[in-house]
Amino acid sequence: MAKENWTQVELDASVKAYLEMLTKENEAVFYRKSDYRNQLLSGALNGRTAGSFEYRMQNISYVLDTLGEQYITGYKPAKNVGSNTADLILESLKRNKFIISNDAEPTPDNERLQQRTKRIRRSINLNNKPTGQQNPLKTETTITAYFRDPAVRAWVLENARGKCEACRSDAPFYLPDGYPFLEVHHMIPIALGGPDTIENALALCPNCHRRSHLSKDKDSFNSGIYKKVKRLIK
Ligand SMILES: [Zn+2]
Ligand SMILES: [Zn+2]
């Protein structure tokens, strides 16, 4: 199984195929991953296995992901790519005229914004103050919205009696209408098929809400919530 490292020629051929597939995906042109795989395995990647081809594609996704770039969703980023191979993939992307977006460039895509922010923070010099954007450009996006049940929200918020159901703290402030401010959170997101019911929703303070979505320890935090709030059903 342990074959020698991939050559630049092999990586170039893989990157080229990858970028073609990515373009087709973006243009909604039908293609089969297996067609590309078979073609390469009988050509530039002669002697490699289907499994190693798949894995290399996932490595390319990983490199693109670290650049904050879009990758083929069917190839989940696999990060066990040696730094040498990652560099070769990067070189290959450049040779294939893949334009790596400028980190300093404003973006309407929240995920890219997060990734660019993270990279800039790593090497920031606080004495170089960014000038920012006086008139940020705008764009229109399509979003999917779900019909939410007001009775579920009302029940969850009333039942909480002004306390976060995770940390039990009082709501951080009152709204102009006199109600304590808490956020209704769905344990299984509606977008991932979760129901809009009181067995899947609870009232959280903004800190616990963000923690539940974003924190490093969100898995244990969320299983703690399930233990604490008995009405919730996994
Ligand atoms: Zn809380
Ligand atoms: Zn939420």
Q: β content, as a range?
A: under 5%
Q: What topology, given as strand order, has the largest sheet? A: 1-2
Distance separating the two termini: 41 Å
How many distinct folded domains?
Answer: 2
Bound molecules: zinc ion
Shape descriptor reads elongated
Q: Main β-sheet, in a few words?
A: 2 strands, antiparallel
Which bin fits the share of residues in helices?
A: 40-55%
The overall average pLDDT, rounded, is 91
- Helix/strand order, N-terminal first: HHHHHHEEHH
The Cα radius of gyration reads: 24 Å
Structural class: mainly alpha
User: Regions with pLDDT < 50 over 5+ consecutive residues?
Assistant: none
Oligomeric description of these chains: single chain
Q: Counting H and I runs of at least 4 residues, what is the number of helices?
A: 8
Tally the beta strands.
Answer: 2
Structure at a glance:
With 234 residues, the chain is mainly alpha-helical.
What does this structure look like?
This protein is mainly alpha-helical and 234 residues long. It folds into two domains: 1-138, no CATH class; 150-228, DNA Binding (I), subunit A. The model has no long low-confidence stretch (mean pLDDT 91). Strands 1-2 form a two-stranded antiparallel sheet. It contains eight helices and two strands; from the N terminus they run ααααααββαα. It is elongated. The chain has helices at residues 8-26, 33-41, 50-66, 83-95, 110-122, 150-160, 206-214, 218-228, and strands spanning 183-186, 201-204. One zinc ion (ZN) binds next to strand 1 and helix 7.
